[in-house]
Specification:
By secondary structure, the chain is of the alpha+beta class. Strands 1, 3, 4, 5, 6, 7, 8, 9, 11 and 12 form a ten-stranded mixed β-sheet that branches. The chain has a two-stranded antiparallel ribbon with strand order 2-10. It is elongated.
Length: about 400
């Protein structure tokens, strides 16, 4: 009985946990949506025109269904500043200038993946239009070494070095090129200089300088009079409305066609990566269905065990019950005595196990089924006239 009570409480607790996990999965599972070429082979360097920026903008039909928008714009560039690397620094002036709208746009910035980013102020960076930048720790160290060397040269030359000079923000001037502009047909467009204030640095290496996406669009408009992006990724805002998301996205994007042509219309596809989400839901729902089938079977088994225990306990006690009846014990008191004897230990087990799980209801339900089985046998035992039992024994 104790084992059955334990199993029933365990399964009830397991069912509640699975139902909570199912609800949590439906509400908070992150489903990534990625824009690719139509054949699904490329998700970066897409050179998408401005209409696709508008496709995920606040005025689009798609916007209510997305969150954590990760949109990037890439430039190639060369640092124009005269810098002085330290002895341990490997300095390369050729960099990639990347406009980003979210920290998840690049692993070097993504703190949820363990990346460490040191910012010099608490102001919002990713949604800003300011021309700030985040550089690698290596490049930041190069800038620090350059300033130290410059200030030392000034001091050696007898020039005054002020605290403002020492604490002034670091800046970079970059000669950048917009890859969206074809240099063969438009050699005079898509090139220009941009001066950036260093807003922070990440603990890593690399030749990428990050700027806010809005600032990258403003710069692209200045040097090429065109706006574009190179990747779009976002998370579904509501997992219960994935079909609506797909319908809204179909206005701008097609489905992935493995053998799709580069000239397909539309040229880009949106993939909703919901495979793991749906597999998780299916597993949880299957676990819940199985548990919901097992629980009634356990209660039925409890009824059967109570019936069997009572039958075995009363089978050899008929003469004792008859003698008690002849001595004036009523049927009701005899029935109560039999049931108390057979249910006292199961009751104690049910209370203890229910308390351990913090939920006595399943154990009480099992005990009730057990008692019903016991009662059916006990009632039959006390209803037989004592004279008939004694005559049978003689």
């Amino acid at each position: 009985t104790a084992a059955m009570c334990f199993l029933l409480c365990f399964l009830t607790d397991y069912l509640e946990n699975q139902q909570q996990e199912l609800e949590t999965t439906r509400l908070s599972f992150e489903i990534s949506c990625v824009v690719t070429t139509r054949d699904g082979t490329q998700a970066t360097g897409l050179r998408m025109p401005s209409m696709y920026i508008g496709a995920v903008g606040e005025d689009s039909v798609l916007y209510p269904f997305i969150k954590d928008l990760q949109i990037t714009k890439e430039f190639t560039g060369t640092i124009k500043d005269d810098v002085r690397p330290g002895m341990d620094d490997k300095y390369d002036p050729n960099i990639t200038l990347l406009g980003v709208s979210h920290e998840k746009c690049h692993d070097s910035l993504n703190t949820s993946l363990g990346s460490i980013v040191e910012m010099f102020s608490d102001e919002e960076f990713y949604g800003s239009t300011d021309r700030g930048c985040i550089v690698s720790e290596t490049l930041y160290r190069v800038l620090v070494n350059t300033r130290k060397a410059d200030l030392k040269d000034m001091e050696d030359a007898g020039l005054e070095v002020t605290d403002e000079m020492r604490s002034a923000p670091y800046t970079l001037t970059i000669k950048a090129t917009d890859p969206k502009v074809d240099p063969f047909f438009e050699p005079d467009r898509g090139k220009g200089d941009i001066t950036l204030t260093v807003a922070g640095y990440h603990m890593g290496k690399g030749q990428t300088v990050f700027i806010p996406f809005n600032a990258s669009q403003e710069f692209a408009g200045e040097i090429s009079n065109s706006w574009s992006c190179d990747s779009i990724t976002f998370t579904a805002a509501d997992n219960l409305r994935l079909e609506e998301l797909a319908l809204a996205a179909s206005e701008y994007f097609g489905e992935v066609v493995p053998a799709g042509s580069l000239y397909a219309d539309p040229p880009f596809a949106l993939t909703i990566h919901d495979e793991q989400y749906r597999a998780t839901l299916a597993t949880l729902e299957q676990n819940i269905r199985r548990t919901q089938i097992l629980l009634p079977l356990l209660l039925l088994l409890g009824f059967g065990m109570g019936f069997l225990v009572s039958f075995l306990a009363t089978r050899g006690e008929k003469r004792s019950y008859a003698l008690m009846r002849t001595q004036g014990l009523t049927r009701g008191k005899l029935l109560f005595s039999i049931l108390a004897e057979q249910t006292l230990l199961p009751l104690a087990a049910a209370v203890i196990i229910g308390s351990v799980f913090g939920n006595v209801l399943p154990a009480i339900m099992y005990l009730i089924c057990h008692c019903i089985g016991c009662t059916l046998v006990a009632v039959k035992a006390v209803r037989v006239p004592p004279t008939a039992i004694l005559r049978e024994q003689e």
